[in-house]
Amino acid sequence: MASGRMRKHGFTLKESSSLPTSKFHLVPHTCKVLSSRLSDGSVISPTTMPMKRIVAPSKAERASVHGWLEAMKNLSPPRMRCMQNDSFEDKTDCDLMDVKYRAWMSEHPSALDNFNAIIEVSAGKRIAIFLDYDGTLSPIVEDPECAFMSDDMRTAVKDVANLFPTAIITGRSREKVYDFVQLSELYYAGSHGMDIMGPAQGCHGFKAQGTKALDEKGNEMVLFQPASKFTQVINDVFKLLEEVTKNVPGAKIEHNKFCISIHFRCVKEENWLALAEQVQHVLDAYPNLRLTQGRKILEIRPSISWNKGKALDYLLKALGLGSRNDIFPIYIGDDRTDEDAFKLLTRRKTGLGILVSKTIKDTNALYSLREPSEVLEFLMHLVKWRRRRLNRLM
Ligand SMILES: O=P(O)(O)OC[C@H]1O[C@H](O[C@H]2O[C@H](CO)[C@@H](O)[C@H](O)[C@H]2O)[C@H](O)[C@@H](O)[C@@H]1O
Known about the structure:
This protein has eleven helices and 18 strands. It has helices at residues 51-55, 59-75, 88-107, 115-121, 151-163, 174-181, 231-245, 272-283, 308-318, 339-348, 372-393, and strands at 5-8, 11-15, 24-28, 36-37, 43-44, 126-131, 166-169, 187-190, 195-199, 211-214, 220-224, 252-255, 260-263, 289-294, 297-302, 327-333, 352-356, 367-369. Helix 2 packs across helix 8, helix 5 (151-163) packs parallel to helix 11 (372-393) and helix 9 packs across helix 10.
């Protein structure tokens, strides 16, 4: 590599002495030909952006890109338990992690082990259920198109929705999550809550507020889309990112209507930095969009003050439950974006958050569940408990 360059997987690797943590930067060959016509008629292409900045991003860019990558890695920490053939050092590390995990669990105890305690705190209040999708109702898988929920989970969510006001709040597009869940009994909020639709007349007798709309079956619904004016810009950026990602082995990009996910899960870790910088570079031309990170994804979303917490608040109001202090919302989620919802519940001083995680995470949730199979168990417990109560009242 005498020239300081080499070709690999459709990339040109450029040597960059200005980068402390990565010696080489991947520059997709497609950068030179890529262009997209934007909503205002102008054409943007990475050739119109200075190449120098692709190879050597600014200090601030590097700092934020590094920050996201670190956060992404932390969201997918290494396994907790030792394998039988681990070395003595590995075992000692694992023992230490186990101790730390147990300490963390004492601060965020299992919602299953503490089911009765949760029911006790909610006594005299009406429980409402809010659920995240990926990693909560469906297991995390490599291909985002294959994140199916099990039939048992579907039955449990349906039963829950027939007994409690229920909504799913997800980073996915609302349509995509509906395809996965296929239940008409609940409310759906897609694009991290920027696309909310639910029955105008809630099945629990509550009248929802919002813009009236009709679903495919002609049912009256309410639609709330606080980021609707970003539709075109998101489409434009999606096209640019499609070009950037198409030559990165393993990278995937997902259009979530008002947000975009760039998937790193199947990208070799040594290529993460270069990909993240390419994403940041595209985004530099769009100051009204921002970048956040999730479980091995970077997400692009409108820079508006809206998140899953605000969506939860909106839904509580739409369901006629917002101002009532006899409501006990339970929010179950696994991701960083769910923290906004956990925070809202902490602020409301009623209701509680449950984090789905097998590993230590900094969280505002009070309780934890290890994985979607435990979420299923928890939902089934709720159904059983509620049915028993209703039978007693009859
Ligand atoms: O709010 P959520 O329902 O949790 O959605 C957040 C993102 O979830 C999906 O990505 C995650 O799950 C994928 C499938 O298991 C996995 O491959 C990926 O690594 C995870 O980050 C979804 O694909 C994204 O669009 C959502 O934003």
